[in-house]
Amino acid sequence: MVTKLEALYNVLLPIRVVSFNDIIEKASSIVKVVPNRRYIYRKYVNKLVENGKLERIRKGLYIVLSPLEEPEKHVVDKLLIASKIRAEYYLGFHTALEYYGAASSLYNEAYICVKPNDRFNPFQYKRFSFKPVFVKAITFEIEEKHYQNSIVKVSSKERTFIECIVRVQYAGGWEECIKSLEGLRGLDLEKLVTLLHKYKNDNLFRRTGYVLELLKKRSPFYEHVDDPLLLIKQYTKFVKSSGTIFIAVPNARSLHRLIGHQAGILDNLYRLSDHDRALGHKRYFDQASLVKLIEESGLNIAVIEGLFLKPFSTAQLKSLELPKEVINALFHIGVKYPEISNAIYIEATS
User: Quick one: pLDDT at residue 129?
Assistant: First the structure.
């Protein structure tokens, strides 16, 4: 016949890491009476510890050892322990990066994000340190994940990304942070921009843009950052009803490119030159492809104009030393001919 002590142990064993509250909850269905905390500790917890079935991590927190497991040889699961310290929490920063399998290095620290009034003293168990990080909000962009027969709360990838570059000291410093973010696959750029808007911090927008640009060059997981349709849709969210978005792009079918292509100098109208890349251009549009893109984004085109009718390359125009009046005329004529102007300018309304 299975004793109540054995029954409680069998219920706790799959959980692996338990708080005293977990033990009280499980014991209530076994003892069949309203459990007294002192009684449960003396009658069950203390005996399980003495029998080598539980090992105390800190006050109110225990590891459940399997029958053949020796305490000194137990493999510590840092994330499981971190998830049991407080009821209201989430695993964030470098610890979240480790959960997502993105961390460049595995740290002995675990960062548990809590509100200041739910603080706990940092503590050490075996080789691991468990440290609180104080945050204002612990509910938005927090995901509950199934992990080792338990539920752990982890900041979403998007919140993890932002918090790591805001408080980089909890991401291991900039070098470790960037290396780890390189491996953070599945980041939702649209959600990231929406989340950034909640912070209402222009410096954070700029910092995020810089980091994304850096990661785009270093990691295949950030290639979607250059998706023009996605970018337009994101910025549309921040435009008031009937507001206007101003868009200007280089034109693949500019007059000087058409002439160069016809003369055999330019093999592909849509190929970027070294000068284009130096200016930060990512791709060429023509009028048809740009209009199609804007219409797909759900915007309405109110104005479409050309910016400068450019008959020759920049170097050739400089060598000609054209008078100011001719340059002004090329700008003026270009307005009416966006399909062959150097750049296409559009005003679109939401």
Answer: 96
